[in-house]
Amino acid sequence: MNDPTTTILFVVILLNFFLLGTSRLGACIRVVAAQGALLSILPPLVHGVSPHSLLLAAVALALKGGTIPWLLFRAIRQVKIRREMEPRIGYIATLLLGALTTAGAFIFAERLPLLPEHLHSLFIPASLATMAVGFLLLITRRKAITQVLGYLVFENGIFIFGILLAEAMPLMVEAGVLLDMLVAIFVMGIVMNHINREFSSLDTENLCLLKE
Amino acid sequence: MLGSLFMHLLVVLTLSPLLAGIIARVKAKVGGRQGQPLLQLYWDLAKLFRKRMVISSTTTWLFRAGPVVGIAVPLLASLLLPFGPLAAPLSFSGDLILFVYLMGLARFFTILAALDTGSSFEGMGSAREATFSILVEPTIFVIFIVLARLSGDFSLNGMFVPVKAGFNTPAGIAMSLAILCLFIVMLAENCRIPFDDPNTHLELTMIHEVMVLDHSGPDLGLILYGAAMKLLLFAALIANLLRPATGNLLLDTGAFLVLLLLLAVLVGLVESAMARLRMIRVPQLLIGTSLLSFFALILLLR
Amino acid sequence: MLLTSLIVIPLLGAAAALAMPSERLRPWLLPPVAFIHLALVLAVIAAPAVSTGAAMLELDGLGRLVLLVVSLLFAVSSLYAVGYFHNHPDWTNRTFVTCLLIFLSAMTVAAAARHLGLLWVAVEATTVASAPMIYFNHNRYSIEATWKYLLFCSVGIALAMLGILFLAYAGLHGGATEQSLQLDFLLQQAPLLSKPWLRVAFVFLLVGFGTKMGLAPLHTWKPDAYGEAPGLAGALMSGGLTSVAFLAVLRVVQIVKGAGEAELANQCLLGLGLTSLFIAAVFVIRQRDIKRMLAYSSVEHMGILAIGVAVGGLATYGALFHVMNNALAKGSLFMSAGNIHRYFGSKKMCETQGAINVLPWSASLFLIGFLAVTGSPPFGAFLSEFTILRGIFGSGHNVLGLAFIAFLTVIFIGMSHTVVTVALGPPLEQAPSAEPQVGEGFLTVLGPLVLLGLVLLLGFYLPEPLRRLLTEAAALLEVQT
Question: Model-level pTM greater than 0.80?
Answer without folding.
Answer: yes
